[in-house]
């Protein structure tokens, strides 16, 4: 038996066994995982990905390195993953606008967001908040709609650019409420918000995690959030449904994807590690404070939400020109 062997012999046997185990393990299990983000460092997607990666690596039992591949509204990052080997060593921290809006607004989309990726696990969801200039005599969504109808073309809203999720959120709002809005595209949410605060714009839709700072410091007035339920970080702000538009619901989300044709056991391994990550109390508290909602489940849950949103944004963008 092993305990009766000389210490040096035991060490040699153990080293040999360890070597055999390592040799038998698949190559992908010994390499760092690249978690690709399709946006620049410092933005909300990158920040969430890095917070996620710290815990995910521990649960996966591998080093996870976040890699930024910005460009084409996040599509360059998705393309890098879609073209990689389906061995689990390259994953995509995908944002819903890239996966469900960009295919409708960019003719030269470099990859197919459905056929070229494998959904692995949902991660989190978030709502937008509709905020307006605080000096306007408007307190509710119904008052905003009435004001827009009485002043056609005078209600302006900003976005992060043509085809951005907050641009199309405004288009959907205009269609469902029967009003006319003037869209003003910017090169990001921050300059648009600055002009809402300054009174150059009437309103904008902004992700709760960034809008809540302006709301809490009373620089803008929130009217609604776009999710089905109220947001925990803005409990006094009603939903679109509560405020009078029962058919309006827009959420954004992040999910983990791999290349197409990943093996079933690899899909299950990553999904389990993601769900364990989302059970981490520290991460749950951090994201709740930022206005995010944890969103866990099977790969099919992520795939179905992507399918649903692709169809919704197809209807909103139909007939619009972007390029």
Automatic annotation (TrEMBL):
CDD domains: PBP2_Bug27. Residues 1-29 form the signal peptide. InterPro entries: BUG (IPR005064), Bug_dom1 (IPR042100). It holds the Pfam family TctC. It comes from the Bacteria. Keywords: Signal. Belongs to the UPF0065 (bug) family. This is Tripartite-type tricarboxylate transporter receptor subunit TctC. It comes from Pseudorhodoferax aquiterrae.
